[in-house]
Fold this sequence. Notes:
By secondary structure, the chain is mainly alpha-helical. 54% of the residues lie in helices and 0% in strands. The protein has one domain. The chain has helices spanning 40-52, 60-66, 72-80, 83-91, 95-99, 102-105, 113-123, 128-136, 148-158, 160-167, 173-186, 190-203, 212-225, 234-237, 242-248, 255-266. The protein is globular and about 60 Å long.
Amino acid sequence: MNMMTAPADLLPSQRQAHVDFASPDLPVMLPGRPAMRYDLAKAWRHFKLLVQDKEDTSQVTPIFEALPWRGIYEAALGFLATERAQEIRRKEPSLVAILDNHEELRKMPAGSLAHVYCDIMEREGLSAQGLVDELDKNRPADMYWDDQVTWYFNRMRDTHDLLHILTGFGRDALGEQCVLAFTYSQQPSPAHLFLGYAGGLEIRKHPVKVPVFRSVREAQKMGKACPRLVEMSITELLPLPIEEVRRRLNITAPRFYNQAHAMWRAQGVDPYDLMAPVKQAA
Length: 282
């Protein structure tokens, strides 16, 4: 059965709380899942609404629905057919539970990915569960299914903050576009690429010119060089020094993104507040 049978009074983030994603009896893929089809008119309609109000995140989910990764079922099934995938599923049924348990993560060595993750998430007041809650506000009910493919989908969502941390792309406007482009190479939904470059076009309107599209394109190449993070054992990576994790994943420091930040700051522009008036450099 799918998650449409869950009690109606549950919050969106609780709709799958009863599912044991580590169970050996969990179906691989239940029948009846919707086909992945493009709807360009829908994508364009919601994109125009997003441009009108960039804070209206409710427009993002429909864009991803309209421009999906059409090969996602094949990718998930191919991975789930491996012994490695089943081992990871047994060890990591929920990345949210692992990543939000900072008490356990803090027991890992200083300088590890786990410590850096905790430092950044605590400093910015973020949590893995918070991302689930935000995305589930607009997630269609027919996306909730009690099967292993959903476990794979959940990992694509739950590794988002790890991508920010491992790549060095911040949560500024350009950093978000770069993470979208990086993610496209990992999970090739046209929505990632569309939003990444469309967002870059908006950033280019700023009076201080920086290498916006070079940054986005570089991020796309970085994502292609990196093994698909959703298919890696996160619990094996967390105790390692963060630089070792980056080496294992072929992640190098982003040249053009860091250059863009330096150019903005030289002109008195805070990359995290591009709408603020430009200050004169000293």
